[in-house]
């Protein structure tokens, strides 16, 4: 066994040296060398006039479904004898199974082109996290949410370290580190809010076709215990007394509106005169946090 193997190596080495040294005889433009073992595998040696050099090309010629196929495999010595033999055997196997190797090659080229296009698109879409945040705020948050300033401030305060990174390079470990750092300061609610904001931004990036996976997935929020504290009537009275006596008119009016209506801070801050019906004593909120219209009497 080993003797035959060594013998084959010697033959291949000798064969390679001969192919490297072979020249086209004067007056000839083409020389064809047949492979000694694989029927149909040939090395075509031709003179390239424009480039002034000899070209040596591996070709497989074989009958397939009553057709004479000529399949170019590659150029020698860039495609070695060993590799040419391997490819020739694979092509012969395809034809033996009734598969046209030309169709396979066409499909491979189509897939390669598609992959190249996808790669170009991926690189074109591979923006930085800062660019993604800007895109999210300008093209989505400002249009469809009322808390976009809070989102911007939150990300800028706690996730600024990600700004220079390409979004395709951001990993769960990067988000987890930020989440942990905030949590170490005891800001569990803040950590949860930031995680929710980042998750929303990356989900939008997936929808836009910028990335395939959300790096926030797998990170668990802190389980928060709901806290509720109600002021007694006496406490409310003292609070209003201090508020009216010491606060500025603007702060006083804001606090009283929030106290008597129970409206969100953002809704009170965004209140406009056109939203108020003084005759019916109704305050119309065009759009709340959940996107629904609300009325306060």
Describe the structure.
The protein folds into 3 domains: 2-122, Integrase, DNA-binding domain (Double Stranded RNA Binding Domain); 129-207, DNA polymerase, domain 1, CATH 1.10.150; 233-296, no CATH class. The strands form 2 sheets. The protein has a 4-stranded antiparallel sheet. It has a 3-stranded antiparallel sheet with strand order 5-6-7, with no helix packed on it. It has helices spanning 2-21, 81-96, 101-125, 129-144, 148-158, 172-184, 188-207, 233-246, 249-261, 265-269, and strands spanning 30-34, 41-48, 53-64, 67-76, 276-277, 282-285, 294-296. The termini are far apart. By secondary structure, the chain is α+β, with helices and mostly antiparallel strands. The longest helix has 25 residues, at 101-125. A hairpin with a 6-residue loop joins β1 (30-34) and β2. It has 10 helices and 7 strands. Mean pLDDT is 82; it is low at 1-12. α4 packs antiparallel against α5 (148-158), α5 (148-158) crosses α7 and α6 (172-184) runs antiparallel to α7. It is rod-shaped.
Characteristics:
4-stranded antiparallel sheet, alpha+beta, DNA recombination, 297 residues, 15% strand, CB, disordered N terminus, 3-stranded antiparallel sheet, DNA integration, Double Stranded RNA Binding Domain, DNA-binding, 10 helices, 3 domains, DNA polymerase, domain 1
């Amino acid at each position: 066994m080993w003797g035959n193997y060594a013998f084959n190596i010697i033959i291949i080495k000798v064969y390679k040296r001969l192919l490297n040294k072979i020249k086209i005889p004067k007056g000839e433009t083409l020389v064809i060398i047949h492979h000694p073992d694989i029927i149909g595998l040939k090395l075509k040696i031709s003179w390239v006039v424009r480039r002034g050099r000899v070209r040596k090309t591996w070709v497989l010629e074989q009958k397939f479904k009553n057709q004479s196929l000529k399949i170019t495999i590659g150029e020698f010595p860039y495609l070695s004898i060993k590799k040419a033999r391997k490819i020739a055997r694979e092509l012969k196997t395809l034809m033996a199974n009734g598969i046209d190797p030309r169709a396979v090659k066409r499909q491979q080229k189509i897939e390669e082109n598609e992959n190249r296009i996808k790669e170009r698109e991926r690189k074109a879409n591979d923006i930085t996290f800062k660019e993604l945040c800007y895109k999210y705020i300008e093209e989505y948050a400002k249009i469809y949410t009322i808390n976009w300033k809070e989102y911007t401030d939150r990300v800028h305060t706690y996730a600024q370290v990600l700004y220079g990174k390409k979004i395709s390079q951001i990993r769960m470990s990067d988000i987890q580190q930020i989440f942990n750092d905030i949590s170490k300061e005891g800001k569990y609610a803040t950590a949860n809010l930031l995680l929710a904001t980042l998750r929303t931004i990356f989900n939008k990036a997936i929808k836009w076709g910028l990335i395939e996976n959300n790096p926030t997935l797998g990170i668990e929020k802190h389980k928060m215990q709901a806290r509720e504290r109600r002021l007694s009537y006496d406490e409310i009275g003292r609070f209003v007394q201090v508020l009216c006596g010491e606060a500025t008119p603007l702060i006083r009016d804001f606090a009283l509106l929030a106290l008597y209506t129970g409206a969100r801070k953002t809704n009170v801050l965004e209140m406009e005169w056109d939203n108020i019906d003084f005759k019916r004593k109704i305050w119309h909120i065009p759009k709340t946090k959940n996107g629904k219209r609300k009325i306060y009497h």
